[in-house]
Specification:
The protein is α+β, with helices and mostly antiparallel strands and 407 residues long. The protein is built from 13 helices and 21 strands. The chain has a six-stranded antiparallel beta barrel.
Amino acid sequence: MSKVIIVGGGAAGMLAAIGAAKNNHEVILCEKNEKLGKKIYITGKGRCNVTNACDLEDFFKNIVRNEKFMYSSLYGFTNQDLMDMLEYSGCPLKVERGNRVFPVSDHSSDVIKTLQHILSDLKVSIRYQSKVKKILISNQTVEGIVLASGEELYGDAIVIATGGLSYPTTGSTGDGYDFAKKAGHTLIDTVPGLVPFVIKESWCQELQGLALKNVSVQLLVENKKVYEELGEMLFTHFGVSGPLILSASNFYQNKQNNTKLIIDLKPALTEEQLDKRILREFEEQQNKQFKNSLQKLFPVKLIPIMIQLSGIHPDKKVHEIMKEERLRFVRLIKNVELTVNGTRDFQEAIITRGGVSVKELNPSTMESKLIKNLYFAGEMLDIHGHTGGYNLQIAFSTGFLAGNSIE
């Protein structure tokens, strides 16, 4: 039996500990917080979207970066394996819209309790409030760790699963990146991922709190379409958020680029169909003022903004609106343009984009190609997916593979 040290007690760290303990290793899990799974606790607005129940082929389509690297870990510990493990150990699950999987109780704490129960059954030793200061390496082989207290712990293998930089209040402060760098690993630039956009146009703020459903959003970088999807979005005091926007942020380049968001408010209709519908609306209300004729087309809060953007005088009678004005209005409804000034910071990011380069890791084991018996897992790797449970499963799968691969 060899001794395995896991650094970090989040999703990847707990599964790495479970994988190693199932392989009959003595496992010590070091967590710098006073409890495990702090980030799991707040995911899915406290409900914990543990995974996505789609088939694996679709799962890979939802991994935006380095999907091929994930083949071994996802096939080795699938979304179904995770669901079976949690349910078998006493945490019943349910599948909601978009194949998102949640605990039946809607309490993320139940997921953490279940994982702790499994760790306890496997006799994993958990060291709380044990911040790791340094990884001990000799002759390109890992030997142990040094805690902030000065205590040294020696092990035959070490898994670093300290998370990224998102939600730093949970303890994700990038410690693992420092360990990786000192071990000779390359870091891909880290930026906030699955994060709201900051928008230039001030009228966005007037719509704060307005949620739009069944709209289509395109993200254009230097006039090139990099993302398009149908779904929900939300206006905020700084710009836009919501599922569509968070997913679009995975394709955002940087602040220097000319980046636009194009919202289609009526994606189910072509411009021609929309024009016919507006003609009908106008004919029924031809003696009304333009500002009073749009109730059936938009939410109340959106009407003054659409009037403003249309360039049509709000008091103009509907029957006085020219064909060119109407067609311009149709185009506006299908192409509301916003200028992206940037994203919010790591405090509001669900994940971290970038991290430890996967080229220097063995995808079949998660072991470093540079340092023997050193493994990496979870959000600190340069892998990320869309919102909907994909990123948590990436953490669970890479963690389990790392722990389970230790000989």
